[in-house]
Amino acid sequence: MNDPRSSQHQPPRTLYAVLEFGRAVQEMTTLLPANRWLSGLPGGDGQPVMTLPGFGGADGSTSLLRRYIGKWGYEAHPWSIGRNMDPGSARNMGGVLEFMDDVVRLVGAKLHVIRKRSGKRVSLVGWSLGGLYSRQLAATYPDLVRQVITLGTPFGDPRSTIVWPIMRRFIDSPEPPEADMARWMQMAKAPLEVPLSIIWSKTDGFVHPKIACEREGPRTENIHVCSSHAGFGSNPLAFYIVADRLAQPEHDWKPFERSGWRRLVYGTMPQHLD
Question: What mean pLDDT is reported for the chain?
Answer without folding.
Answer: 90
